[in-house]
Amino acid sequence: MTLRPPVTIYDLQGIAFGILLTSLGVTFLKAAALTTGQTAGAAVLLSYVLPLDFGLVFLLVSLPFLLLSWRHRSRSFTLRTVAAVLGISVTSALLGRWIEFAALPPLLAAILAGSCCGVGLLALFRHNASAGGLGVLALMVEERTGFRTGWFQMCFDALVFLVALAVLPLDRVIYSLIGAVVLNAVIGWNFKLPPSRPPETAPDA
């Protein structure tokens, strides 16, 4: 009998790549005073109005969804998602300190942030993980209803941007909306759950 490791090197590198790309996207957002949708966007907005770092706020906002994942999804998925949330919380804080921009046009920042976060989330999904928050709920909805993950998240984004209008200048909200459209388009066009395997039947006698 061969014992399988709980996570393979292949999955580790994929999750690490997802953490890095997603954290880089957050760095673009923060540098240009933008936001995004999903719970990450809520965490970014809260980090603008509270004396707390994004990483800590993101972790706190993600906790209820991690509990939801623990109850309704596999332990493997939940533990990988916890690792991803912790990784993004730490890595985004480090990148924010290490990377400085002499000039970063907000439109470019929005497009780069949406692209990086979209690719990062795709990598996490591909390796049975999520960035926590709404991603967990979105995956559950797609599995049960077939409603695509990217489009579900885009609907939630609309609520986040309504709140953003009270926190950010109008032009920053518009640029942020462009970034969110890019992010969700990347996911909506490139991510699809694999078809469910049919139940195995006993061979005929």
Tag the structure with descriptive keywords.
205 residues; globular; disordered C terminus; plasmid
Number of DSSP strand runs: 0
- Series of secondary-structure elements, N-terminal to C-terminal: HHHHHHHH
- The count of domains is 1
How many strands, what sense, and barrel or not for the largest sheet?
Answer: none
The end-to-end distance, rounded to whole angstroms, is 27 Å
Estimated radius of gyration: 18 Å
Unreliable residue stretches: 196-205
Q: What class do helices, strands and sheet pairing give? A: mainly alpha
Task: Bin the helical content.
Answer: over 70%
Shape: globular
Range of strand content: under 5%
Q: How much is the average pLDDT?
A: 86
How many helices? The count is 8
Protein name: YitT family protein
Pfam families: YitT_membrane
Membrane topology: Multi-pass membrane protein
Keywords: Cell membrane, Membrane, Plasmid, Transmembrane, Transmembrane helix
